[in-house]
Amino acid sequence: FGEVGAERLAIAPSTNGKVRPCSETQESDEYVIPVETWSGYFAGAKSGFAFFTAEDGVNSGTGFMVLRIADKKKLLEDSTEHGFENIELKAGVPVVHYRRVYSAKCSVVAGGASCIDTIAGATGVSKASLASCEPGYRQAKESLARERCKIKAKPDQQCMARELEVIRGQKWDAAPSVVSYAVELELRLANSGAGPAFVIKPAGGALACHPAD
């Protein structure tokens, strides 16, 4: 109350197959998700999984967590740019479609081929699609310079050039790259020993790239 994020995140069992009315009072058999596991908001549930979002966004993305309801196990944390596009069942397996936000530890603009190799290896996007980083960084710098000029009492025609020079001095090109791309997230109800509890598959190349916040 009065702060971002829910007061508590919890799972309450159904009674005789019927969902209980939502209540602020904590029930005795309610499972409360520990704050060290996740804090934020409830987003929805599907096919035995519960989805929760973060309180705030970072690097143009909003974090989310997927919890397997049966054993209260947190399967993964990730970040999405525009929320979930949809969730469908494929051969009984829930598949979540969304635009993933991947925050790298290197800069494509400053690190070149080495950073491109690292990001492509971690995400599965094509190396060629990461060519969007150069114009993405340029657009971010120009947008910042434009905003700085807007708040000046008497901006002149040279304001953009001066602000871009200041930004260059702040080494924005060395800021880690943030890449967004479409993915399919496959979730599994139980670990059968035949594979992981989830798989994230790229559904195309990098759609956008910009410097980290």
Explain what the structure shows.
This protein has helices at 108-111, 113-123, 133-150, 159-169; strands at residues 10-11, 31-32, 41-46, 49-58, 61-68, 73-90, 93-103, 177-187, 198-202, 208-211. The mean pLDDT is 91. The chain is built from four helices and ten strands; from the N terminus they run E-E-E-E-E-E-E-H-H-H-H-E-E-E. With 213 residues, the protein is of the alpha+beta class. The strands form two sheets. Strands 3, 4, 5, 6, 7, 8, 9 and 10 form an eight-stranded antiparallel beta sheet that branches. A two-stranded antiparallel ribbon has the order 1-2. The longest helix is centred in the middle third of the chain and has 18 residues, at 133-150. The chain starts with 9 loop residues before the first strand and ends with a strand. The radius of gyration is 21 Å and the shape is globular.
